[in-house]
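User: I've been trying to design a sequence by hand for this structure and keep getting stuck. Would you show me what you'd pick, starting by listing the structure so we're on the same page?

Assistant: Good idea, let's start from the same input. This is the structure you sent:
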């Protein structure tokens, strides 16, 4: 007879669509609090404002552990805290960024990452013109130092904003040094070993979808 796994070792798989919707709820609720003091809010109100289904909102919030009150709704502050805890945004995670071109520099300057628990502590590049300088308050180090720095600091998240050509080699370097998750902004898909997480952000694909939807919209008029 096989003994059941301890409860603390069982990891519940959360569907990706849910993980993508939770930040939307979070941003919405934070804005609600900033605009006017609101203590409670219903799933119906959230669904109407976000153009989605109330039952979907309810199921998504249940996953975070947030509990609503009959005829009253959810306490806004509690839902915000529940989402932060569930997504790990209450514990800042440090990351390294590789590639300090236009996109990489913009990512370094985005202060909103801190609201979601991400702190880019250093940047790396191969260009002699950039090494040693500061971009958006972050020092740019030689990419040759990347493996040593990953191992020394125990960094687990790497943000890849390099051109397509060196992207795979840089990804290999990250993984071999101990990176466990790569947020890939390079204009190419990268291959990684099993057990390594990759989130691809393909700006060209997003632009293609946007352009096509716009063309269809204009054609209907």
């Amino acid at each position: 007879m096989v003994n059941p796994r301890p409860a603390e070792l069982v990891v519940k798989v959360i569907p990706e669509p849910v993980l993508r919707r939770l930040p939307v709820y979070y941003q919405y609720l934070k804005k609600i609090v900033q605009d006017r003091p609101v203590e409670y809010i219903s799933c119906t109100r959230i669904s109407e404002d976000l153009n989605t289904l109330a039952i979907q909102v309810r199921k998504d919030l249940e996953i975070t552990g947030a509990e609503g009150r009959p005829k009253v709704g959810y306490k806004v502050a509690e839902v915000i805290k529940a989402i932060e805890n569930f997504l790990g945004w209450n514990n800042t995670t440090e990351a390294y960024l590789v590639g300090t071109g236009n996109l990489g520099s913009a990512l370094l300057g985005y202060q909103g990452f801190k609201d979601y628990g991400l702190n880019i502590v250093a940047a790396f590049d191969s260009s002699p013109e950039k090494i040693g300088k500061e971009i958006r308050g972050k020092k740019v180090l030689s990419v040759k130092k990347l493996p040593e720095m990953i191992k020394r600091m125990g960094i687990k998240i790497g943000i890849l904003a390099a051109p397509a050509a060196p992207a795979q080699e840089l990804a290999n370097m990250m993984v071999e040094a101990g990176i466990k998750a790569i947020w890939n902004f390079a204009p190419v898909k990268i291959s990684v070993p099993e057990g390594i997480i990759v989130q691809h952000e393909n700006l060209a694909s997003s632009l293609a979808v946007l352009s096509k939807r716009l063309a269809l919209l204009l054609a209907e008029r």
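That's my pick for every position. To get oriented when you compare it with your attempt: DSSP finds eight helices and nine strands in the chain. The longest strand covers residues 118-125.
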